[in-house]
Each structure stands twice: as C-alpha cells, then as structure tokens.
Amino acid sequence: MDKEKELYLDNAATTAVYPEVVDTMLPYFSELYGNPSSIYGFGARSKKAVDEAREIIAKSIGAKTEEIYFTAGGSESDNWALVAMAQAYKDKGKHIITSKIEHHAILHTCEYLERNGFEVTYLDVDEKGFVNPKDVEAAIRPDTILISIMYANNEIGTIEPIGEIGKTAREHGVYFHTDAVQAYGHIPINVDNENIDMLSASAHKLHGPKGIGFLYIRKGIKMGSFIHGGAQERSRRAGTHNVPGIVGMGKAAELAMEHMKENMEHQIRVRDYFIENVKKEIPHVKVNGDLKRRLPNNINVCFRFIEGESMLIMLDMKGICASSGSACTSGSLEPSHVLLAIGLPHETAHGSLRLTISEETTTEDMDYVLRELKAIVGRLRDMSPLYQDFISKN
User: Fold this and answer.
1) Alpha carbons 385 and 209: distance in angstroms, whole number
2) What's the confidence (pLDDT) of residue 2?
3) Distance CA 280, CA 328 (A)
C-alpha cells in the first residue's frame, strides 16, 4: 500500500501526547514512584504532584480544588455521575433527563438505570443538534433528580446552550451534569457561570495520556463512591492514584489553557476553509451541525449516494486517518444515532465523514484531503446504483 503521506485527522478519537506532557510524567514512573497515600516523605512528593495537577485543573474550569476527583477517564466519570447520583437521590425521585445525541457512556448508563427501576426522558434535538432549553424545562417533573446534557457533541461538534440549561436546572432544584469530554481544553468552560454541578473530562482528548480523567462534583452534593475500597480521593474514588497520568493531565490542561485562544483561532480558520471548499468542489454534500456554534476542530459532512466505510478505507490508503458516523454492528452497518437524531435519512447518514483537526493541521493538509476526497467520492459514486439512478432522472 503506497501512502503519499500520513495525515491524522481523528483527534476527537484521541490525540498525540505532547512531548512536554511525556517529559513531565516520566520521573513519576521510576524515580518519584512513591504512593501518594503513604505518610513518608518519598510518597509526599507524589502527593504534592497530584495536588498541583488538581489545582491546575480546578482553575481551568473555575472550580475549587476539593471539587476535582480523578478517574480513569470520561466513561468512568459519566458512569459515576449518573449511577451514584441515582443511588443517592432515589428516595426523592427516579427520573433523569438526557438527550438522544449523548455519547454511549451516557446512553448505555441510562439504559442500565432503566433496567433498575429508573425512568429516563431522552430529549429530541433540532436539525443542527441543539437541545432546546425549553424542552428541558418542560420535561422536568417533581421526581426529576438529574439532567445530563453533553457540552458539545463528539460527532457533529455542536456546542449546546449549557448556560441556559444549567440555569433552568438550578431554578427547578435539579442537579445538572455535563459530559464535557470533547469540549474540555478546547473551548472556555466555567462551572459557576454555567450552573454546572458535575462535569466529566478525559486527558487523551487534549494531548494528555489515556487512562486518566476527572469528575467535577460541586461541593455540597451528597453522592457516594462508584469504586469502593480505600480512602483515596477523599473516600469517594478508591484505588491507588495514577500519579504519572494525573501529572500528565495537569500538564496537558495547563498547555491547553495557555494556548486556547490561538489554537481556537487557527482551527476555526482551517475548519472553515475546508468546509467552504468541500461545498464548492464536491456536489451533493451536507455539512452537519451548526456552522458557528461548533467545536473549533470539528468537520462533519455527508456525501449522498456513497457508503462511509468504503470512503474511510480509501482515505486510509492515501494516508488519511478519519472516521465515519457508520459503525459495524453484528455484521451490518448502522448509521450514527446522532445523525439520525438530527433528521438525516439512513442513506445519507451512511455517507458521513468526520474530520477532527489539531493545531498542527494546515490548509495545505486540507487541500490534500480535498483533492483525494474528490477523487474517492467520484469513484464511489460511479459504482453506486443510487447515484446512477439519480443522474438518469435528472
């Protein structure tokens, strides 16, 4: 397989760990390897590093240090927020509100809770993927204990009206959680300004290591542990601290905050450049999500009359790493639940392509992608009976 170049455009899936992050982590593997829960000085050095990382992360979202709890990543944080909240407040009620476009870490946890006696309302979104705050308010009942709406969608990039939803939740005395895994480190977030009670994040989405994340829990919320055992994380999350991971996440968060403005400006420029040109160069293309209120690095488009998996394979042959809304499940292709929720027909949703760029992606990179993509889409449409039928009728 002859690849002209290797171009990674799937940063929503995971990111490269920054060299500065690796350098910060290395001493805590084999030099400063003490357990931060121990009482001797060698372990205290690890505890100091954990405390410093916690302080950086708390500051990055306008929280208090004692409100940050380290986890193994976004999925654990989401599970903890929903399950522990449900268990803690089940005497008050068993109703939870979420949306139809959440990550499966939320949706599958909600399904688990439904099997255990809880009731979940799954809110519709509009054609751009927005949850309407009025729909949230209308869904609130006397027995509602939690609202969980993602900060920004991982597939189409739409940034939700989190501040309005948080305000509605606060006015009705309902706790509000947001899955901010795709948003944290990429756009500004302030938990007080947006009335967020719990927030999930993961380091590997912002050039940190895999296997580490955090859950922000507003002080005063009475909810228990998700992992039981020792007294780590103020007795709320058992298990020996992943010190290298925590240190790495702290450094990644520090870098993300320091360079956020310039990274956002660069990514928006490259993103919009590609979106504008793909609409000019390739017919029958649809951009998914809102064009303005979207993550700076997110591009999601659908090409009619083709199938996304074939497109991805052919892009890979040209050294382009991307993803699609399609997923192979039990031997049959099922379109993305997000694309179906925004109203796309199955046949259009099957032709989806998600490109998520980084601060290192250039307009020249995207010119290469567009050139190869134009040829690939043309080739696939030439083989598509649907396209041939469309052409014959037009």
Assistant:
1) 45
2) 44
3) 31
Q: How far apart are CA 285 and CA 276, in angstroms?
A: 11
Q: Using a CB cutoff of 8 Å and minimum separation of 24, what contacts does 164-172 make?
A: 164/133, 165/131, 165/133, 165/136, 166/194, 166/195, 166/196, 166/197, 167/133, 167/195, 168/133, 168/136, 168/137, 168/140, 169/136, 169/195, 169/197, 170/195, 172/137, 172/140, 172/144
pLDDT band at 324 (very low <50, low <70, confident <90, very high): confident
Rg (CA), the chain: 22
What angle (nearest 5°) sits at the alpha carbon of residue 103, between those of residues 250 and 245?
20
Distance CA 368, CA 278 (A): 12
At 76, give phi and psi (nearest 5°): -65, -45
The pLDDT assigned to 330 comes to 33
SS3 278: helix
Residue 140 neighbours by CB under 8 Å, 6+ apart:
97, 147, 168, 172, 174
* Catalytic positions: 328
Residue 118, CA distances (Å) to 90, 108, 170, 173 in order:
8, 13, 22, 19
pLDDT score of 327: 42
Check: pTM over 0.90? Answer yes or no: yes
* pLDDT one-digit tens code per residue, 149-173: 999 999 999 999 999 999 999 999 9
Cβ 12 vs Cβ 74: under 8 Å: no
Whether residue 326 is predicted with pLDDT greater than 90 in this model: the reply is no
Cα dihedral 43, 44, 47, 49 sign: negative
